[in-house]
Amino acid sequence: xxxxxxxxRKSFIKNAALGIAGVGASPLIGGFTSPEQVQKKTKExxxxxxxxxxxxxxxxxxxxxxxxxDLFCVELADGKIKSVQKNNPKxxxxxxxxxxxxxxxxxxxIHLDKTFYGGPWKIVKRRPGGLKGMIALEQExxxxxxxxxxxxxxxxxxxxxxxxxxxxxxxVNIEPTSKLQSLKNxxxxxxxxxxxxxxxxxxxxxxxxxxxxxxxLLKEAAKMDIxxxxxxxxxxxxxxxxxxxxxxxxxxxDHQKGIDIHxxxxxxxxxxxxxxxxxxxxxxxxxxxxTYLSHCFALSAIPASKQEELAEKLAAAEVGIxxxxxxxxxxxxxxxxxxxxxxxxxxxxxxxxxxxxxxxxSVLDKASLMAQLYGFxxxxxxxxxxxxxxxxxxxxxxxxxxxxxxxxDKADFVLVHSSCSAEAVARVPEIEHLIxxxxxxx
Length: 442
Hints:
33% of the residues lie in helices and 23% in strands. It is an alpha/beta fold. It folds into two domains: 43-104 and 395-440, Urease, subunit C, domain 1 (Roll), CATH 2.30.40; 106-379, Metal-dependent hydrolases (TIM Barrel), CATH 3.20.20.140. α8 runs parallel beside α9. The chain is globular. 48% of the residues are buried.
């Protein structure tokens, strides 16, 4: 691949004008935060004292009835945990004042590139006609949204940080209306926020691969610094399951990317899409552990026996499910997925945009909602629910052995006023501090 063909995030930042080229001047450009400004706001952490860490479970017979904790000093170096030591209240260190240390949160499904957040309250009336009606709406509103998308992405990132999130997998529109501009604008925002936030990007054909002429653009995006090839309801939007999935799989293989497909379809076409994607992954084992279905509502609309069967197949193919934890008529079989070893993650999807207006920015909220939906009302199951917010990292393993933090772990964590993980999930405390790569960023 030639230098001209490979467009990295950094290359966009060399000339920030690229981030808004072709979409008109933005009145909010002066509000952008440069990487240098962000760096000045962060504080290098070396030693913390009076840090509350979980040390084990307390049992009554076989039942976990409480979580044991103690206070420690935690030493950091080079963006990692260097050591966990006996507490020394007199140490010259950042005083955590008995706050609980938890892994930083990971949002695995969000659209940072198109949000109303950071601007005035706004509701856009949803269009009739399902997804195709919403595609028509997007074609109207995206040109105006692009003018401020970098600024608003930065503001949304700041909200996520305030909720304890230091990492997001963001889907970014690739379609004929915004072409590659939405991606370029988001690249600028991510570069500006890189001192306190990490991201991976999904090149997302929001308007379909063939329903609109997106294939050439997605091929171009695949050469850029993105991590996943996305997709959207292949049967509903493009009229076929095989053709769009085959294209997506081949593009991912050609460029060594992962796959993350939005699947809202809840009928037989949804089930058929799940099974066809599993088949393609099994034919191409390099995609195992790198392939995801977002939403995947079809799993909520099938009999329990079929849920068990598909969960077993998903686990065997190492295809993950990224669920926004819907409720009401669409309660996902998450306990079944977890029982079979399927990688389940979550994301807030959006805070406010033309698709939806409800969102706090907190994936801990999502973990709490999951616990409520499935009746996880005991100490053990509440503590296990934390893993949904941290992408499968928890302080204690299922037997109560301490497994986090340990030497060489990334120094990515939050401090909260909670006694343990179970209480944090149940009560969703305010985030007092977020530490990213050993730096205090919130």
